[in-house]
Write a structure and sequence with these properties.
By secondary structure, the chain is an alpha/beta fold. Helices cover 25% and strands 38% of the residues. α2 runs antiparallel to α7, α6 packs antiparallel against α7 and α9 runs antiparallel to α10. The N and C termini lie far apart (52 Å).
Amino acid sequence: MNAVVDFPVKPVARDYLARFARDAGEPGWLATRRQQAMTRFAELGFPSRKSEGWRYLDLRALETRPLLPAQAAPALDEAALRERLAALSLPAAASRLVLVNGRFVPALSTIERSAGVWLGAMARAIGERPDPVRAAVDDAAAGDAAHPFAALNTAFFADGYLLDIAPGVSLELPIEIVHLGSGAGAGSFHTRSLIALGAGSRASVVETYAGEGRYWRNDVVAARLADGAELNRTVIVEEAAEAVHLAQLDVTLGAGARFTGFALLLGGETVRHEANLRLAGEGAHCRFDGAFVVADGEEANIVTAIDHAAPGGQTRELVKGVAAGRGHGAFQGRIVVREDAQKTDAHQLSRNLLIGRRAAIDTKPELEIYADDVKCSHGASVGDLDEAALFYLEARGIPPDEARHMLIDGFLREAVDTVDDLATRAHLLRRLAGRLARLEGAA
């Protein structure tokens, strides 16, 4: 049954509101949250460039050509999807969970069962693990007021995944999550996921986003790290040429917890990776690094907000970008040190490379410090390829195109080398090499 509208609705939200309907099979608490979120999105609409957090991304194409949530899952060509998975997947993983068009596909997934680990589809977790799921959705509800696409995600998410690890459990191999768009028709996929690590537990997650055709992926992931827990999360975005990819990560760290994140943005017409991290416990450590490559009118944004709310925390952040042709990239990074967060050690650096006169990169690092006993710094640079280095390589017989490729690869490799796991790093470098091989013609 469709909702009755008795509140102001932004014009851009009307099509989504018309598509919204309650699922009678869902628990009442989720139906209530969905209704509240839909109302909030209808009131907010899409953010504009006047909003500071969205000033570098052009969403007009999504406004004028809406991509609505699919009402039914299309038939899948499993043979073609398996071939695609073989090219994208890690050589070795503890488990692989695959979502196609935003829904879990058991036939393409391999989930190893082990004591103290619950890994499965969010649609299933709502019924089998309601407590952590409800807590995460309730926590997110407060943030939906400031994040219209997170609100839309709450209203429409059909699936995602839950990784729930008991205290003291450590996983040696990474968990692999693969999100695919099948190209079966234009639409939007709204996925909601949760990673919950108990005290002293440890896990690595590698997520890949790829697809075919025109679609909009609206992905929200929450991570809750109890005291002393450790999470490494690596993201690779290789979406289709016409795809819109908007992703939001929200992480809360307990005392002594450690989070290491890396995002490699390699494909998609419009891509935004947002990471919000709160160091809520004393002595929490955070490392967030990333890299993006854009060309041919592509846009990619990395947006981070790191909140030091307790003493003794540490943050390291390095983001690198390369833009060629008419590509446009941007980095917006904000680190806040609260009054009680004494002894904070936080450093942020954004370095960017332009290939050609039509490319553009914006960078905006920020520090907001309210404590007096801290060690913090930030910096940013945007420049062209080093002509002296090019001349040096060419003078030694290296062809100009190969010399340019070597310099670009070396520039981005510094960011990729922050990934500790050697197998994951090698996988990232292979994906990066494939993207750089297609970059030179766009310069």
